[in-house]
Structures are given as C-alpha cells and as structure tokens.
Amino acid sequence: MVPDDMNSQTSVEQRIANVQSADSAEALLSAVEHLAAAKHPSATACLLEILGFNNPGAAVAAVDGLIAIGEPAVEPILASLGTNNYGARAWSVRALAGIADPRGLEVLERALATDIGPSVRRAAASGLGRLDLRSLPDEQASGLVERCLQALLLACGDGEWIVRYAVVVGLEGLALKQAERISVLSFEALRHALAGLAAGSDPLTPVVVQRRSALALHRIDHSGGPHG
Amino acid sequence: MSAPSSTTIEMADPIDEAEALRRLRATDDPSAQYYAAWWLGRHRSQHPDTLPLLLAAMRQRRARQLGDGVEENAVARNATRAVGKLGPSASEAIPVLLELLDDPDYGLREAAARSLGELKATVALPALVARLRSGPNVAGARASDSANLVEPCEALLEAIGDLGPSDEEVIGVLESFLAHERPVVQCSACRSLLQLTQEPRWGERLKTLLLHPQLQVRRAALMDLGATGWRPAAQAIAATLAENSLKLIALRGLVESAPSDGLDEEIFDVMDGLL
User: Directed axis angle between helix A161-177 and helix A138-154, to 10°?
Assistant: First the structure.
C-alpha cells in the first residue's frame, strides 16, 4: 500500500508521534490502533517497538498493523528477532504467520517445535499451512511445502489441544491449496495424521480436535484435488 | 465462571503416572503432592491406586504456612478438583465430596461443588441447592474476613446446571441470583438457567454480559456460554473484547457441550480465524 498523496504520509508521522506521547495504557492502545490502520510501511519500526512493551492489547493491535503492511514488514521483523525480548519475539511470530511470506518459514518452524507459549505455537502452526508461495519457482515452492508439512506432522502430538487444532487447520490448508506440490507419499502421511487425530486414539486429543480433523478430511475428499 | 489460568505447569516438570502416584504418597512433601494430584486429574488417570490416594489426600488438612507458595489445604483442594476429572470411575468419591460441601474451608466447598457437577452426581442436587437457598443477600453476601462471598456461589450455581433436569423450586433459587451485585455471579446463574431450561433469553442475557466494561466479567460470560453449548452465541463470542485463547476455549465448549449431527462448519470457521 503506497500512499497516493502527502497527506497520508504526514498523517503517519503524526500517528507515530501520538504513540510516542501516549501517557496511559488506553491512550497507547488507541494511538496504536490508529497507526495500524494506516497500513503504511513507515509505521513498521514503531509497531515493532510496541511488541516489546508488555502491553497485550497494544501488541495485538500492532501485530494487526504489521500484518496489514505485509511484505515490506518482513525484513524488519526478521532483523528484530535477534535483539528483542521473549514477549516481542512471540508477537513477531504471530505477525509473520499472519503475513504468510515464505521468508518467515524458518522462524515458524522453530516456533512450532520449541516455543514455550501455546499461543505462539498455535499461530506458527496455522501460518505454516497458508504460506503464500506464488512468487517462487515451482521446484523451490514444492520444497517449502514439504518442509511445512513435515513441521506440522511433527507437532501432531503437541500437549496443548489448541496447538493440535491449529496443526489440523494447517494440514488442511496445505492439502487444499498446495495439493499439486505434495508428493503421493507425503499426501498419504498427511491424510494418515488427520485420520489418527479424527479417531482420537490419544486421550489428549479432545472431541473438538477430532471433529475438526474429520471436517478437514471431509473437505479434502470433496475438493476434487489430485489426491482425491 | 472464573477464567482458566493462561499458563500451564506441565512443561516445567514432565512426569509419568508412576511418578505422580509416588509423589502423591509422599505426605511429608505437600508441594510434590499438590503437583501429583493435579497431574493425575489432568491425565484422567485410571490406575487402581489413583482414586484411593486422592481420597486420602482430600482428607489432609494443612493451614497455609509462611514460604509454602501454596494455598490453605492446598493438597486436599487439588485432590478434590482432580477426582472431578476422572469420570465415572470416580463415583466412589461422591460421598466424600458431599461431606466436603459442608467443610468450613471455602476453597474445599468450591472444589467439591465443581467436581460434583463434573461427575454429574445428581444425588448432590439437594445439598447444592440447600447452600444457596438463603439467596443473594445471605449465601451471596460478602464474607467478613475475605474477598469471598459467604458461599462459593459461582461453583454451586454452575454445578446445579451441570447436573441436568431440575424442578421449579431449583429454578427459582437460580433466578434469585440474577439480582446478585456481582456480574460474574449473574453469569453463573444465566449459564445454569440456559442449560436447564434451554430458553434463549438466558443466552441473550449472557451475550449482553459479553459487552460488560470489565474484562473479568466478559471472560466469565465467555466461559459460561461455552459450557452451555448454545451455538447461536458463536459470532458474539468471536467479537468479544478478550484474548483469542479464551474465545477459542469458549468456542470449543460450543462444539463439545452439546452433541450435533452437523459439521459445525460455522463455528470451526470462526475458530480458524482466531488462531
């Protein structure tokens, strides 16, 4: 989103100034929401800073803002990961999952496998199911789909129900949108994992995850894809 | 209903069932017992030693001590919560839970009420109603020595809803708590009334409480709607100003609390959007 006139640029600067001068949690939240609504790349640095403030309301709004900025925010987010505190990194993972840029893949893989926060693993799992690979050559895209798939399959046994739920949603996303990039063998593994979750063979898989898995299988079977 | 804690202690200390049972036997180490009781409930342990050990732990009494880091009668409270999670195999615990409903310890009465509801112990209905019959101004009055009410009203109200079919007298007692000064208690009353009568007006009232200015009330209304399985609440839950984690728990409740022949695609689409 490139602004078409100087007014909106000035306005972003003003909105950043409002964030910096906010003197209460409520004022900050409203200033961040306003800045996020600008959807302008020049807001990226300020939005990233907010992720480290330990203010969940403002962080949610900042993540929404980063997702709205999209592709231009990816490099700054990745660059910030080395220096930020844990809280900020967790929010960054959520932003990368939402932007769905393939450059976020490695961060999402690591977050799903190792992050201590269930909400972070949950976001990573759903992000791995919906990376936008249209800009990549076919061969490279197929390799990335395979990595997403393997990361999700490894997380089917996560101890938190909501992470398992997000893994199911991620697997469904791959099966419906990337089917032609998945080998027969890998597709079989995907279907097998969903069938296992749908059957609830593990007592830590609650009914809601079983039913979501059954829905995913239903949608895959009726999608008319190459593996149907 | 109070919102669940967002943190879980599970990852700090992965143990297995044998280790949990060993720790629960260690009566000289209350903090090990406290964790073990929680673990056995969370994993719905069906080991033959689990229930006898939890029943013994429910009778342990220990005042809060300096540096404990745990609450008064902490082991007994956690064991009481755990038996509620064990399912039908824990029916032997019902007489003990009924005794605990009359315990002087507020926290034990609260845990016992919740577990009786979870175990669907219909035999407990008269005892649960009896503790609330004096109404919002007596049972629901503020305790003189703490921030608690005289009775654990939320837990008692919710347990009555969990037990299923009730008569008009019970409905009358529940309705009297709609006038309680604390909105979270009103939430609990609405929840049970919705479960017992299936009248949409109680669901609509809970939806109104989703808009309450206090986050704590919105969280309670979320959890209570989830527990009722009232599917028309799905969109209102998604639109509530609260953490996505809690909205997801509430929506899970809609899917799991009442059986459905359909695919529940509307609810699942809403949940997928909150990940």
Answer: 160
